[in-house]
Design goal:
- The protein is α/β, with parallel strands linked by helices and 349 residues long.
- It folds into two domains: 102 residues, 2-Layer Sandwich (Enolase-like, domain 1), CATH 3.30.390.10; 226 residues, Alpha-Beta Barrel (TIM Barrel), CATH 3.20.20.120.
- Helix content is 33%, strand content 18%.
- The strands form three sheets. Strands 5-6-7-8-9-10-11 form a seven-stranded parallel beta sheet.
- The radius of gyration is 19 Å and the shape is globular.
- The model has no long low-confidence stretch (mean pLDDT 95).
């Protein structure tokens, strides 16, 4: 039996990121290393639906690898019993997949059935406590080559949100895609009013405008607002996912936002993306404001999923202080996957 080494880490955001629960300033998690190779990362976020930091650590420290896990199915089998701790499962899965890819001498993306030649367009999250800070951030990101920007909304009156979005649109011009994320803070009526009020801004999409448990409200917004509707937190409500595949009722959303850390790993995100594509629901991958190792895994699975014209939310490591660039750092708004065995990212913590 083999036990992994579990090392805690803490990352500080350069600027607070606003969520439905308030301002986030720090992310904590664990780097997972197996003897002989194989590195993963578990970065839970309890308010988003994962286990607590303490429960994650306990699950990681209890884990024992009982056989070689020399195939994808064997990796799945080795992770049995971890469904209640999705971040721990995601981190251990990434480490075991990296280990298997290293043993076979192939990039992680190829182990998952994708191509190392894939180029992943990335969107960037605007961070900043003031309108001026957001505008400076938006302008800088466009100059760096990003063509999709995301803005958190829902914590201010509609008129203030509209003014901020208008200022950003004027600053970046008409060709940059703008998406908004309400984190479930609006009622159905508020979301309809808000999104129709900013129709002239040509928003690309809105992530989770209504509460995670309100799939019917999410579904009704489709077609009544001038942008795509994306389900995010709604994917994590227990027992709710089958509604996404109910062919007897209208689709819940146009797009699904897949966070491997919250879903329990790369392979689960990949399977969900394939099933959603059958239902004509597009998908893109984002991190849960994870560190660089988890971002590398997310990039690999994004490249192994059905093709999408939507940018992935993978330019998040750059929001942290003191994390050096790595093989998956976006260049001119895109990630070019590393041509090495495994996921290709090392990180000293």
């Amino acid at each position: 039996m083999t036990k992994p080494q579990v090392t805690p880490f803490e990352l500080t955001l350069r600027a607070p990121v606003q969520t439905a629960q308030g301002a986030m300033r720090v992310r904590r998690g664990f780097v997972i290393r197996f003897p002989g190779g194989g590195t993963g990362e578990a970065t839970p976020l309890e308010e988003f639906g994962t286990e607590s930091l303490e429960a994650c650590q306990q699950a990681l420290e209890r884990f024992e690898l009982r056989d070689d896990a020399g195939s994808l199915d064997a990796v799945d089998a080795a992770l049995g019993g971890l469904d209640g701790t999705p971040a721990a499962r995601a981190g251990l899965e990434l480490a075991l997949l990296d280990r298997l890819a290293l043993q076979r001498g192939v990039p992680l993306v190829e182990l998952l059935g994708g191509s190392v030649d894939a180029t992943l367009a990335c969107g960037a999250l605007l961070a900043g406590e003031t309108a001026d800070a957001l505008l400076r951030n938006a302008t800088a990101l466009v100059e760096q080559g990003f063509r999709t920007l995301k803005v958190k909304i829902g914590r201010r009156p509609l008129i203030q949100e509209a003014q901020r979005l208008l200022a950003i649109r004027r600053a970046v011009g008409p060709d940059v895609r703008l998406r908004v994320d309400a984190n479930g803070t609006c009622t159905e009526g508020e979301a309809r009013t808000a999104l129709r009020a900013v129709e002239s801004l040509d928003l690309e999409l809105c992530e989770q405008p209504v509460a995670a448990g309100d799939l019917e409200g999410l579904s009704r917004l489709r077609g009544y607002v001038p942008c795509l509707i994306a389900v995010d937190e709604g994917l994590l409500v227990p027992g709710q996912r089958p509604r996404l595949f109910d062919t007897e009722r209208p689709r819940v959303a146009d797009v699904a936002v897949l966070k491997p850390m919250a879903l329990g790993g790369l392979r689960r995100a990949q399977a969900l993306a394939a099933a959603l594509a059958e239902r004509k629901v597009d998908s893109y991958v984002t991190t849960l404001l994870d560190g660089p190792i988890a971002r590398a895994g997310a990039a690999a699975v994004a490249a192994a999923m059905p093709a999408t014209s939507l940018a992935h939310g993978l330019s998040t490591v750059e929001l942290f202080e003191g994390v050096p660039p790595d093989a998956c750092t976006p260049q001119r708004g895109a990630i070019h996957l590393p041509r090495v065995a495994g996921h290709g990212v090392t990180w000293a913590v």
